[in-house]
Amino acid sequence: MVRGRTISAVDATKACLERIERLDSKLHAFHVVRAEKALAEAASVDDRRDLSDLPLAGVPVSIKDNFNVAGEPTRVGSRATSDAPAKADDVAVRRLKDAGAVVIGKTTLPEMAIFGFTETAFAISRNPWNPQRSPGGSSGGAGVAVATGMSPLALGSDGLGSIRIPATFCGVFALKPTRGRLPLMGDLAEHWFSVSVSAPIAATVGDAALMIDVLGGTTTFRDVMMPAKKLRIAVSMKPPTFLASLEQPISDAVNASVATLREAGHSVIESDPPYPLSLPNNVLRLWAAGVGQDVKNLDWTDLEKRTQTMVRLGRLLGPAPPKALDRWASAASSWFRDFDVALMPCVAHASIPAGVWYGRGFVSTVLQQIRALPYTAPWNVAGFPAASVPAGIGPDGVPLSVQVVAPAGGDGLVLSVAAQLEQLRPWPRFSPDAAR
Predict the structure, then answer these.
(1) Annotated catalytic residue within 138, 198, 257, 388
(2) Is 334 annotated as catalytic?
(3) What pLDDT sits at residue 434?
(4) Cα–Cα distances in Å, from 119 out to 135, 193, 293, 310?
(5) For 299-315, what is each residue's pLDDT tens digit?
(6) Which residue, 18, 254, 373, 386, is most buried by CB atoms nearer than 10 A?
């Protein structure tokens, strides 16, 4: 509509700012709202002569607060960081702006983007479907922003599930792309020993696919097509760790998606990924050592106690041996020789409470994260694309999902299967409060 000048970029931005003003005092999706700057950027978009050529002309986007946006501080949910504004946009942010997008604000995350919930000393972010429950994390604010229409698109990051987890709990779509496909936050060469990637959250599969193209500088994914042939699909409920317990609403959601794909003509076979016994330990080591990387220039006294403990653990143990990680990726690739894609849970628990995580100790926090959120991290370690696709509503009113995984480079196939699920089992565009 903006490209065709049916509406202006300024009007689109104003509409999102009005949603933020109406909803965000209760939900806390945003750490920074760039109202005046966003309107000025939108006016500049409206003045562009090449408006019809911009793939994201006038589309308001939110940016997770571990990316640099020129003129804004990058606080990563921590009081230990500086209020100094970033001098320049990260590459990912610049590509969004070059495509005509308007940066409307920076979204909330837990301290240093560590956990699968979004609670900091600044605010507790809440699920727009049920404010007593968490939106997940670490891209929690991004999930809330898209689910409520406060921003149609959101840029996040996914280190061990940080974009798929909030997409699950907020009822929107997210794709963690193949490692190396998109530029990282801070324009880093690698992050968290190469398990962390940049990723989009969107209301629809097509929107996310277009955003992947814009961020990656490609035109490969935006025209998402249904699967062109009968696929071999593996389905697994097995968690990667014995500490996890899968709740019935989650398995029901996965089974419903499996039934849909089987009815569409695909071959679905029960088969579990060859998770090594050492994988959970290696994930913990990568997690802790990655956090240690991130805080090396910060004042430790202003970090949460559990963050300090994680940093000490990471420095004591160091990252997992690269050979062990390569063995898992190789085993996973071999498993996929018999399958095109795999379906499995994205999370083990149908929801997690909001407001009970701040101030918890390290051990109880980490154990609960492992129990509730075990399914996403293995695919970061392998570097494979994996998506969270909405799959109904749970008993407490929080959305459910299914995770779709493919081997490295199979991003288009993941998008194709997700698009078919979207067509056959459509999900609501907005959470209830935002739809009113």
Answers:
(1) 138
(2) no
(3) 80
(4) 10, 25, 21, 17
(5) 888 999 999 999 999 99
(6) 386
